[in-house]
Amino acid sequence: MGHRVHFSYFIIPFLCLFSFLVPSAYSQFLDYKFYDRSCPDLPVIVVRNVWEAYWKESRVAATLLRLHFHDCIVNGCDASVLLDDTEDFKGEKSTPVNRMLPLAFEVIDNIKEDVESACPSTVSCVDILTLAAREGVILSGGRYWNVPLGRRDGTTSDPKAVVQIPAPFEPLENITAKFTSKGLDLKDVVALSGAHTIGFAQCFTFKSRLFNFQGTGQPDPTLDASVLSDLRKTCPNKDSADTNIAPLDSVSTNRFDNAYYGNLVRNTGLLKSDQALMTDPDTAALVNRYRTNPRYFFRDFVTSMVKLSYVGILTGEKGQIRKDCRFVN
Ligand code: HEM
Ligand SMILES: *[C@@H]1O[C@H](CO)[C@@H](O)[C@H](O)[C@H]1NC(C)=O
């Protein structure tokens, strides 16, 4: 009898400990070495394919980064943004906000094809997209970071859910609310916005700042005058110019650096949502910090990218490993 009492005093705390730890650790468990044994060629395959595409068209780096963001911010990182429409299915990919450089989707397909021949049904499309986004940052001159792996692909994609993506016309509070609803915070908003140090935006995404800001019939008073006249040349006030593009960072367009933050301080941010980071004292303080100290920016960007890559992930038995990133199995 004495023995049994002893035994249960000893074992019950352990059982409790494990019953709490196991499910939560399991559901969020990612690992840098997840494919080290099962697909050792993965890193090389990703690098080779992203490089190849980058030499063809350097913008692909920016598009991959944006694609990864749009995947994660809409119902979690699950490669839902990669699913093609079919006769009886319409997903996020064909929505206007996800019409991106076709080359970015082709890179993912090419990586997947190579990976399937090296290690079939092993590597998820969402992990491929996450790695490809990191590779794009590196090719553009950004700092390296380790990508935790082991996410699994979703089996659904909801076109209506793209409203979860922040729009450039929204006030800063709304954009922040969209981030916080995903477990990201104000610092993540400012650090991740630094992704706009590469890539381009179509004229319609900032046109109202040039000609008719908030119905005033005047340009946005917070937009620098010389930038205003340059942008009016790229984006004349007619519908046919709406899909012309301007660089998000005109100082160092293809370079992943902290110039984006300098632009904001000089009132030359391209999107209203970029420039809005200067309107709140907390975000403006971070902007100034990242402008003056690139190392802080790189450090916080990496931290926030890893955080973003954990949003709403599927692991363990959930989801699947797609054979073709465009279709569920
Ligand atoms: C903070 C809220 C954000 C807003 C309102 C926003 C909005 C936009 C808009 C309007 C464009 C241009 C789209 C077009 O021309 O159709 C764009 C491009 C881009 N965005 Fe964002 N974005 C945000 C955050 C982010 C984040 C967090 C990332 C990545 C971590 C990101 C990465 C990019 C990149 C790299 C491009 C250029 C893509 C290319 O050239 O193909 N953005 N964004
Ligand atoms: C900002 O969010 C509020 C509250 O959700 C909403 O009513 C408003 O329409 C949003 N503004 C924009 C421009 O999307």
From TrEMBL:
Positions with a binding annotation for Ca(2+) 2: 197, 249, 257
Residues bound to Ca(2+) 1: 71, 74, 76, 78, 80, 92
GO MF annotations in UniProt: heme binding; lactoperoxidase activity; metal ion binding; peroxidase activity
EC number(s) per entry: 1.11.1.7
Protein's recorded name: Peroxidase
Function: Removal of H(2)O(2), oxidation of toxic reductants, biosynthesis and degradation of lignin, suberization, auxin catabolism, response to environmental stresses such as wounding, pathogen attack and oxidative stress. These functions might be dependent on each isozyme/isoform in each plant tissue.
SUPFAM superfamilies: Heme-dependent peroxidases
Domain Plant heme peroxidase family profile: start-end pairs: 29-329
Subcellular locations according to the entry: Secreted
Protein family membership: Belongs to the peroxidase family. Classical plant (class III) peroxidase subfamily.
Catalytic center residues: 70
Keywords: Calcium, Disulfide bond, Glycoprotein, Heme, Hydrogen peroxide, Iron, Metal-binding, Oxidoreductase, Peroxidase, Secreted, Signal
Enzyme class: oxidoreductase
Main subcellular location: secreted
GO cellular component: extracellular region; plant-type cell wall
GO biological process terms, semicolon-separated: hydrogen peroxide catabolic process; response to oxidative stress
Cofactor(s) needed by this chain: Ca(2+); heme b
Binding residue positions for heme b: 196
